[in-house]
Amino acid sequence: MPVAQRWRSAILSLIILAVLLGAWQAATRSEEGTAVVDPAYAALVGKAAASGGKTPFPGPGEVGAELWRHLEDPFYDRGPNDKGLGLQLAYSISRVLAGFLCAALVAIPLGFMIGMSPTLYQAFDPFIQVLKPISPLAWMPLALYTIKDANSSAMFVIFICSVWPMLINTAFGVGAVRQDWLNVARTLEVPRLRTARQVILPAAAPTIMTGMRISVGIAWLVIVAAEMLIGGTGIGYFVWNEWNNLSIANIICAILFIGLIGMALDLLLARAARLVSYRE
Amino acid sequence: MSLFRNPFDAQSRLACGCGRHASQAEHDLAQRHEAEALQARAVESAVMRALFPQDALRRAFLRAVGSGTAMAAVSALFPLGAAKEAFAQSPGALEKTRLKVGFIPITCATPIIMAHPMGFYAKQGLDVTVDKAAGWALIRDKALAGEYDAAHMLSPMPLAISMGVGTGSAVPWTMPAVENINGQAITLSIKHKDRRDPKSWKGMKFAVPFDYSMHNYLLRYYLAEHGLDPDTDVQIRAVPPPEMVANLRADNIDGFLAPDPVNQRAVYDGVGYIHTLSKALWDGHPCCAFAASKEFVTRMPNTYQALLKAIVEATAYAHSPANRKEIAAAIAAPNYLNQPATVVEQVLTGTFADGLGKVIKEPARIDFDPMPWQSFAVWILTQMKRWGQIKGEVDYQKVAREVFLATDALRLMKEAGYPVPAQPDKTFSVMGKLFDPARPEAYLASFKIRRA
C-alpha cells in the first residue's frame, strides 16, 4: 500500500515538526527577571535587560514573524548594504553557478584526459592529492591578495572547491569504462575522438554527474562562509550583517533558506543524473 | 530633459541623462564646457561690477563702445584671462565623481556614514557608495587593492601601512582627518559586576577590535598602569566589533575595550556593563580615521579635496550636540549600522544606561573633531614601539608629518566654520601622565612594563 504508507510518513513528519517546534517554544520561554529598575533606565535597554536578564533566544513565533516579513518583500533594494533576502540568495546562487561552471569547464575535459591515459593519471595524482584536502577558505587571503577583487575571489574559492570532486570522478568514470566496450569500438575501427564521444562519455556520465552533485553541494556550503568573509552581498553577508545586529531570528530564517536552496540544487542535479543513467 | 522626451520617438536619443547628447561621455564633456563658460561669465560679471558700481553707467558705456571693444579695453586694464583661470582652479574639475568608501559599522564612522544619507557627499558633487566591510583586515586589503577610494580606518592603521607593519610591503598612506575623539569604553561581562578593581583582573580574556588600534594601546596602557602585564597576566585577542557581544555572551571573553555601539549593545541585551569610558583614560583621544592612499591624494587632488571637505563638514555637523539625535536616526538603519535606534542615540547623546541600573549623563562620551594632531601619531608610535610592534629607530616626527595631514584638515576646518587651533601641535596627558611629543624616547623609557 504505497499510498497509505506515503500518508503515514507525511503525518509522522508533521508530528516530528510539531514536537520540535513545541520543544523550541518551551526551551525559549523567557523567565521574567525579578530585579526592579526605574523606568528611565528600562526605556534605554532591551526588554529582558530591564528586568535584570539577558535577551533570550527567539522563539518560533518571533522567527515566524521575521520569516513572513522576508517572504512578503524578498526583493527590495535599499542601497548597497540593505537588500532583500531573495536578492541576497540570488547573488549567492549566481556566484556559486559561475564558480561551478568554470570548474566544470576545467575539470571535465582534464578529467577525461587523465582518465584515458594512465601515465597522465600517475603524473597528476600527487598534485590532486595535495590540493584536494585544502579547505577552500584557506585560499581566500591568497585570492584576495592576488586577484584584488572580493567578488572574483569568492568565485575563485568556489571554483577551487568544486574542481576536485568533478576531476576525480570524471577521471575515475572514464578510467573504469568496461574494456569490452572499448574493444568492440576498436574492432569496429571507430576513431579515437568518436570513441570518446559515443562510448566513453555515455558510459562515464553517471559517475561524472555524481562528481558534479558532490561539487555543487560543497560549493553551496562554502559560499556562505566565503561571503561572511568578504562582505558586500550574498546570503553569507546577510548572516554576518544580522549577527552584527545580534538578530538570531533573522539568522534562523537565513539558515532555513540556505537549507532549502541547497536541497533544490541537489535535487536538480539528481534529476540530471537520472537522465544519463543506464542499466547494464 | 529626458523626463519630457518621448521614449517612443525614433528620432530622439536616450543615451544621456538630458537626452541632448549621443552618449554619456559627450554629455559630461558638454557639461564641463558649460560649467567652464559659466565660471568665465561669473568672473567677467564680477570684474565689470567692480569697474562700474552703477549698472546704468555700465550699460551706457557698453552702448557707446560696443561689447567687443569694451571687453578688449577691460582686458587691457585687468588680466581677465588670468583671473578666469585662477577662479576655475579653486573649485577644480573632479577627476572622478563615483567613489567607493569602506566603513565598519560602528559609531566612530558616523561622519563617513551620515555624509551619505544626509547629502554631504552630494553637496560636493560626489556620488559616493558607502560600503560596509566585514573587518579591519578586509578593509585594509580592499583599500590596498584599490577597491575602495578611501576608507574608514583605525588611526594607527595608516601609520602601520605606511611603515609596512602587518602588511606585505610599505605603501604610503595618509590620514587627512580624524573621525571621532573619545567614544570607546571598557565593557565587562555582567558576571564580573563586583570586580571593578583592575588589579583583580589577572587571568581574564579581553578583546580589542584590531592589533593596530587605539583600543589595543589604551587597554594595554590601562592594565599596565594598574600593574598588570598585558602580555602575560591577561589574554588580549583581536575580535571584529560585531562579534564581540556574541562572544561576551558565550563567555568566550570576559570583557573588551571596544568602539560603540558594541558597548551599549552589550548593555541593551543585558550581557555586560560599562566599566569605564575611554574618556576617563585620555580625554580627547583619537580613535578612528578617514584614510586614503597617497596615490589617491596626489593623482586626484580635486576629488580628494572635495571628499575631505564633505567629511570635515559632516564632522562639524556631528560635533554639535543639537544634531546628534537626528544623526542617530539616520545612521541606525539596516543599510548602515543596523542597530536599534535607541542604542545609537544613547551613544551619541551621552545619556545612557550603564548596565548596572544607573542612567549616566556624559555629553562628551563621544565627540567629533577632524584635527589629526601630529602628537597623536607620535603617541601611537611610542605605544607601537612599547609593545614590540615596531622595532629599532623610529623617526617619529617624520612619519607623523607624512601620514597625519594636519595642514589640509586645518584649512578645511576653517572653511567649515570650526574653531581652529592656534598652535600646530598640542600636548595631552594619558591617565594623569603628561606626554611631550618632542621627547618620545624619554616618554617610552619612563614605563616600567614594556617590551622595547
Feature tags:
heterodimer, A: 280 residues, MetI-like fold, 77% helix, B: alpha/beta, D-Maltodextrin-Binding Protein, domain 2, 5-stranded mixed β-sheet, 19 helices, 43% helix
Low-confidence stretches of chain A: none
Using the coordinates above, name the CATH class of one domain in chain A.
Mainly Alpha
- Please compute the radius of gyration of chain B using only Cα atoms: 26 Å
| The CATH C-level class name of the largest domain in chain B | Alpha Beta
The percent range for strand residues of chain A is: under 5%
CATH-assigned homologous superfamily of one domain in chain A: MetI-like
Uncertain segments of chain B:
86-90
Shape of chain A: elongated
Q: Between the first and last Cα atoms of chain B, what is the distance in angstroms?
A: 67 Å
* Strand numbers in spatial order across the main sheet of chain B: 2-1-3-11-4
How many β-strands of chain B, per DSSP? 16
At the fold tier of CATH, the topology name of the largest domain in chain B is: D-Maltodextrin-Binding Protein, domain 2
> Mind describing the biggest β-sheet of chain A?
none
Query: Helical proportion of chain A?
Result: over 70%
Number of helices of chain A: 12
Give the biggest beta sheet of chain B: 5 strands, mixed
The total count of helices of chain B amounts to 19
Number of strands of chain A: 0
Multimeric status of the protein: heterodimer
SSE class of chain B = alpha/beta
Number of domains of chain B: 3
